[in-house]
Automatic annotation (TrEMBL):
Pfam families: ABC_tran (PF00005). This is ABC transporter domain-containing protein. SUPFAM superfamilies: P-loop containing nucleoside triphosphate hydrolases (SSF52540). The keyword ATP-binding applies. The keyword Hydrolase does not apply. Residues 11-218 form the ABC transporter domain. NCBIfam families: ccmA. Keywords: ATP-binding, Cytochrome c-type biogenesis, Membrane, Nucleotide-binding, Translocase, Transport. The lineage of its organism: Eukaryota, Viridiplantae, Streptophyta, Embryophyta, Tracheophyta.
């Protein structure tokens, strides 16, 4: 009988570092995610959360270390072609087509829009949407395009309380189906059993206006 081998993680970051403009942004990051797993990235402004997601999306390459999908390096071109088809992405740039209707923006997946509370707006032009509605449209698109790995950059910005609950719900359902979710966020979000990775600040912290105000309070 062969000895038991632990399953290969779906996604594995091995000692990953990343440079931008000759500056080290991420240093020796190690993360392992299996199907149904979740990772929440937190950290101060500029700590590298978006850089981390962009690297996972293949927009930039690690300067050291490896990102492995099913044990294969995603930067190999043959692998990358398959890997990128696994990804679904939300960023602050919402990539909504302004002149299209809400429905046409998500390939006519009306049930996804209804789930996100946008059923009434399907025929409206997308440029009419409020910020929170635009974010809900992005969430509907996550549901309409069935891909296992979700990369979500600040997904709850502009959402109201109900919108945040919807986001948490769809993340939970996606994970139950074996999907993987990676979220970069400043805002509180409830994701059961998520790994939390707090990226360290990149620069020694200088005094900010808030520190000055706090000092003024003490004296
Ligand atoms: N295209 C780029 N070229 C050079 N440097 C960049 C580029 N994009 C980001 N950076 C730098 O990388 C650092 C990390 O930026 P990043 O956007 O990843 O941080 P973040 O944690 O997502 O920040 P925030 O909380 O403000 O969204 C910043 O110092 C930023 O100036």
């Amino acid at each position: 009988m062969s000895p038991w081998k632990p399953p290969t993680p779906r996604l594995l970051l091995k000692n990953v570092s990343c440079m931008r403009n000759a500056q080290q942004i991420l240093r020796h990051v190690n993360v392992s995610l299996h199907d149904g797993g979740a990772l929440v990235l937190t950290g101060t402004n500029g700590s590298g959360k978006s850089t981390f997601l962009r690297m996972l999306a293949g927009f930039s390459k690690p300067s050291a270390g490896e990102i492995l999908w099913n044990g294969h390096d995603i930067t190999q071109s043959g692998i990358f072609q398959q890997y990128k088809l696994q990804l679904n992405w939300i960023s602050l740039k919402d990539a909504i087509k302004e002149r299209f209707t809400v429905l046409d923006n998500i390939g006519k997946a009306q049930p996804a829009l209804e789930l996100m509370g946008l059923g009434r707006l399907v025929k409206e032009k997308s440029r009419m949407l409020s910020m929170g509605q635009r974010k809900r449209l992005q969430l509907a698109r996550l549901l309409a395009i069935d891909r296992p790995i979700w990369l979500l950059d600040e997904p709850s910005v502009a959402l109201d309380d109900e919108g945040v609950r919807l986001l948490e719900f769809v993340i939970g359902e996606h994970r139950k189906k074996g999907g993987i979710v990676i979220v970069a966020t400043h805002l509180p979000i409830e994701i059961e059993d998520a790994l939390i990775l707090r990226l360290p600040p990149r620069f020694p912290r200088k005094m900010t206006l808030i520190d000055m105000l706090d000092r003024a309070d003490i004296s």
